[in-house]
Amino acid sequence: MADDMPGADDDVERDLIEWLCPRRVRKVDVTLHSEIYKDLGLNGMDAWEIGLYLNKKHGTDFSWLKWKEYVPGEPSLFVGGLLRLWRQVRGRGPVVYKSLTVRHLVNAVHRGKWLPSSIPGNDSEIRWWTAG
């Protein structure tokens, strides 16, 4: 699939970027390549609200999107610290999340629903990274 979907440079793209700017935790530029959690710092309910917003505004169905694969939940700092310590003691590495970018969400809006194919190339182009 081409990097840009037909019509991707339109109101959906601008609208989503404008909506994300005041909600981002990390004050970085929001682009199509921005990672929802890694770059913008949105997790848990903040990330889930993106799906609600796009559903309400554009009717996009995100029922297939498993948010926990892309962003962490919202444990308290104490619980989060305990979970990281437990993983270290048990010899497990850090939690790994799939890449979720603004472009992936725009692609889903253009399709009308989230599918694994909302990520170009499916698993071959998914970047994995760890939460720090």
Describe the structure.
This protein is mainly alpha-helical and 132 residues long. The chain has a domain at 11-72 and 98-123: Non-ribosomal Peptide Synthetase Peptidyl Carrier Protein, Chain A. Helix content is 36%, strand content 5%. The chain has four helices and two strands. It has helices at 11-20, 44-58, 77-89, 102-111, and strands at residues 96-98, 128-130. The chain has a two-stranded antiparallel ribbon with strand order 1-2. Helix 1 packs across helix 4. The longest helix is centred in the middle third of the chain and has 15 residues, at 44-58. The N and C termini lie far apart (31 Å).
Features:
132 residues; Non-ribosomal Peptide Synthetase Peptidyl Carrier Protein, Chain A; 4 helices; 36% helix; mainly alpha; two-stranded antiparallel sheet; 2 strands
Give the arrangement of secondary structure elements:
Blueprint: H1 11-20, H2 44-58, H3 77-89, E1 96-98, H4 102-111, E2 128-130
Antiparallel strand pairs: 1-2
Brief summary of the model shown:
With 132 residues, the protein is mainly alpha-helical. It has helices at 11-20, 44-58, 77-89, 102-111; strands at 96-98, 128-130.
Helicity level: 25-40%
Would you tell me the structural class of the helices and strands?
mainly alpha
Low-pLDDT stretches: 1-8, 121-126
Distance between the termini: 31 Å
* Spatial order of the strands forming the largest sheet: 1-2
In the CATH hierarchy, what is the class of the domain at 11-72 and 98-123?
Mainly Alpha
What is the CATH topology of the domain at 11-72 and 98-123?
Non-ribosomal Peptide Synthetase Peptidyl Carrier Protein, Chain A
> What is the chain-wise order of helices and strands?
HHHEHE
Q: Count of DSSP E strands?
A: 2
Q: Let me know the largest β-sheet.
A: 2 strands, antiparallel
* Residue share in β-strands: under 5%
**Structure annotation, total helices:** 4
Shape: globular
CATH architecture of the domain at 11-72 and 98-123: Orthogonal Bundle
Give average pLDDT, whole number: 78
Rg for CA atoms: 15 Å
